[in-house]
Each structure stands twice: as structure tokens, then as C-alpha cells.
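[job 4471] stage=fold_predict status=RUNNING
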Amino acid sequence: MKIGILQIISGECISDGVGVDVNRVAYELGKHGYFVQCSVTVCDTDKISDSFGFLCATCDAVTVCGAVNAFYDAVAEKYELSRRLSTFLLGNVPCAVSEKCDDKFVADNLIPMLNGRSKTYYATNVFRTLGKTEEQLREALKDYIKNRNKISIKFISRPPECSVLVRYSNKTQKNTVSELLDGVTRTLKDCVYAYSDVSLPEKTARLLIEGNKTVGLAESFTGGRIASLLVENAGVSQSFKESIVCYDNAVKRSRLRVSQGILDTYGAVSIETAYEMAANLLMDGDYDYAVATTGNAGPTSEKPNQVGVCYIAVGDKKNIDIYPCRFDGDRKTVIESGALTALYHLHNRIAGDIERNDENETKE
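[job 4471] inference complete, writing C-alpha cells
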């Protein structure tokens, strides 16, 4: 089914920051087997009616977003819309209207409306992974990719992350879908951080908030990027306490008490330095968790052939784990990869603690 999007922009909508992320809407619709055929943006109210008519004539369904009052004022008489409904049928064309065409509107209104008009529709299960390349994931899932049940497996790679999308229709036998999903889940269990379209920073922030946990950061080569990713999420202020950007060795010594002996013997980019950064951060701050990063983002490095070499420390006052990493790409890519990988290990640490606590409570 081909979908048309009519975005109506008025001065009020612009000031309120209302707009349609067409790529995002197309992605969400594509997971269910629907495709955006055409997107039209209208600023002149005199053109609303004709634009709406064009989309209804060329697409199987239409969604209208933005200045909805202007839309109804423009089309009510011509199309005999006596009531301002959020969904309605114009001839054989289903239409949905909302000020914001966000994920909630797509999931709660648009998709159910389209499914109700389709004999065959689709659902998609999403596996968000980190640390494995698309090639590695394809190899691990090769037996499932070859299935003959018309269940498609696609990959969206944005290193160091890769999303695996498993799509199937309402006509596929439920036990077949269940068996394949169980197999994919088992195969990817060591690299999955979410089973829905939620970002890693959002998922990590959610775990911190819901678990009433706190975290402090000591960032060297990531330069505050981990903090930036966390603070994008509303409510995280109750969990995220501080980030020390200790880029210079003198700051590592003065702010984090990394010893001169460690720096001289092992260098700033080392397991030992990462450990001391995290350990002293925990010792001086009142946090449940600490994350520390040190590495060479490039284009030059402290030692030969060390560009992209990084160490990430994640832990609490009982135990600190060190993760040696090597990231490919330019400086910006290495920094982003390091920040996301640090969040991934923090996420897994929190999730593991929650799981162990739940198991202990069950035993009691």
C-alpha cells in the first residue's frame, strides 16, 4: 500500500517546532509493509485542498500532519467533512489527521487504520545490537536468513551498531514465526541491547532512572560525548551526576589522582590508567556506577600504530571491568564509537545487576 503525506505548515507550527520527519515515518511504515509514495509540504492555505486531492488520487492512503485546523477549514466543504475526525474514509482512501506525525501516532492510529484496509499486512521485530558488524551478524544468522517461510531478515548498519529487522506477514503461521524469533534471540543474546526501536542512550538512561541508580563519568578521548548522549533524555538529571573531561594528563593527575608512576610506566592510553580513572572517580563521588574512557582518537597517537586504540572502564565500588577496544574510522567516528560502546557496557552492567537482584528476590 502506497502512502501519501501532506504536511501543512503555518507560522504557528514553525514556532512550535512541529514538523514531519518523513524518513522516520517511512521507516516505521516500511516495517509493516507500507511505503511512502509521495510527501507534499504546503505553506499556502489556498493550496491545501488541491494538494490533498492530488494525494488521494495518486496514493492508497493519506496522512495529514501539521496545522490540522487549517486543513479542515480548507477541505470541509469540498469533501463534505462535517466533523473533524482523526481518521476517516474518503471514497476508498483511508485518511488520518494529526498535528504531529510522531511514532505514537503512527503506531496507535496510522498502522491500525492501514491494517484494517489490507488483506495482507506485516509486523517487524527489531533487534538492536552493538559490537558486531553486519557481516558477522549475517554469518551468525545465515540458517535463519535462508528460511523458506517468507520471513525476511534485513540489516541496518550504523557502526558500531547494527539493527536486525525480522519481518513477517499476518498470513505466516504463528508457530513458524515464534520458532524463528526464538532462534534469532538465542543467537544474538550476547550483543543485543534492545528488542524494540529504542536508542542505546535512551535505553541506558531508562535503566538508570527506573532503577534509581546514579552514574559519574571520566572522559578523555570521548571528550564529553557520553554525557551529551545521556542528557538528551528527559529525567536523566536524577541519575547522571557529573562528567569530568580529563583530556590532559595534568588533569588526570589533579582531578582523578591518576599517579605519575602509572602514566610514566603504562601511558595515558592503558588499562591501568582507565582503571585508576574509574576507581578514583568512585572513591571521590557518591555514585552507583562509574565510566572512564581513555584512548587515541587520531589522527596521531602517543605510540606508533595506536590510532583507534581505546580502553573503557565500567564498574561500581565492588568491581571494575576494563574493555580494550580498537575502532576504525576518522577522529569523529572513533569518538562516537567509543561513547556508544561505553554506554553499551554500562547498560549491560546495570541490566545484569537488575537480573541478579530479581533472581535473588525470587529465591528468597
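[job 4471] summary: Residues 12-17 have pLDDT under 50 and may be disordered.
[job 4471] exit 0
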